[in-house]
Specification:
single chain; about 290 residues; alpha+beta; Beta-lactamase; 3-stranded mixed sheet; 11 helices; about 15% strand
Length: about 290
């Protein structure tokens, strides 16, 4: 199933890996890599860093809030649409705040992070995700949406808009979309494996990468007495610590959680996105599992 933003930790991890290899610095401003034409169309573009893009402190406008987003998604469903196609929706839009002066979730930061890694790698970052993460972890059911569409298929999803009684099948509008903000198709087993393999004591990444990814000093505080790292939430639940990210898109809802102290994975997919039938059902399910296990 498309995992939407639950795939953001993979993008953040890849950036941390490239930093560990000294191929980039997370604290360089994005004009280090991106063209002047793009930077000039992003308020404060020459001031924001790659790290700020990934931890949502850049202040950059969220392209999914543009009224043209849905129109772009449903137009020409057989055409591959990539990060640059969606970035246009965020260009020349007002910033939420100056970089580092606030915290606002923005998918645009991940589009730019994807473009930056493409520049650093000299190839699309999906190749590096496969070589550095999917293959080493044996994530055989995981592939980059759109770009790697020949690697597999996914189930239909269903969405109902608040002001419309009709239920829409959404798969055909999403299978050719490639966004670093919502990158992968995966299975519950693969998503659980990924989060555990990153966080657990016997992690497949070194301590330096883990520190950049979700180290305490790197976390941006949230409303749950926890924080947000490079695409991953870290929250205390009593004496336990939850590492997680959810994902929600038209027709699909994902939750991926790992409780380190319990060595417990909770991963759930629902192939619909209609509140309260779908979102509330997912939240209720996750809460029941947590209450039972913790």
């Amino acid at each position: 199933m498309p995992t939407a933003s639950a795939g953001k930790p993979m993008i953040g991890l890849l950036a941390a890996m490239l930093a560990d290899d000294n191929l980039l610095s997370l604290d360089d401003t994005i004009d280090t890599w991106l063209s002047e034409d793009i930077i000039n169309q992003i308020p404060n573009g020459s001031e924001m860093t790659l790290r700020q893009l990934l931890n949502h402190t850049s202040g950059i406008y969220n392209y999914v809030d543009n009224e043209g987003y849905l129109d772009l998604l449903i137009a020409e469903p057989d055409k591959i649409k990539i990060d640059m196609d969606f970035l246009v929706l965020a260009l020349n839009q007002p910033a939420y705040f100056k970089p580092g002066e606030g915290n606002e979730y923005s998918n645009t930061g991940y589009l730019l992070a994807g473009l930056i890694m493409d520049q650093v790698l000299g190839m699309h970052h999906s190749i590096a995700l496969r070589e550095r993460i999917f293959v080493p972890l044996g994530m055989e059911a995981t592939y980059y949406r759109g770009i790697e569409k020949d690697q597999g298929d996914f189930i239909s999803g269903y969405h109902k808009f608040d002001d419309d009684d009709e239920t829409y099948e959404t798969k055909s509008f999403l299978e050719n979309v490639s966004q670093a903000s919502s990158p992968v198709i995966s299975s519950v087993e693969n998503m659980a494996l990924f989060m555990k393999s990153v966080v657990a004591e016997q992690s497949f990444i070194n301590d330096s990468i883990k520190n950049e990814f979700f180290g305490v000093q790197q976390l941006i505080p949230n409303n749950s007495n926890g924080g947000y790292g490079l695409g991953i939430n870290v929250d205390p639940i009593g004496d336990n610590t939850a590492y997680y990210h959810a994902g929600l898109s038209y027709g699909y809802h994902t939750q991926n959680i790992y409780i380190k102290e319990k060595d417990l994975s909770i991963t759930a997919f629902i192939n619909c996105s209609t509140a309260p039938i779908c979102e509330s059902a997912m939240d209720s399910l996750i809460r029941k599992v947590l209450d039972n296990e913790l």
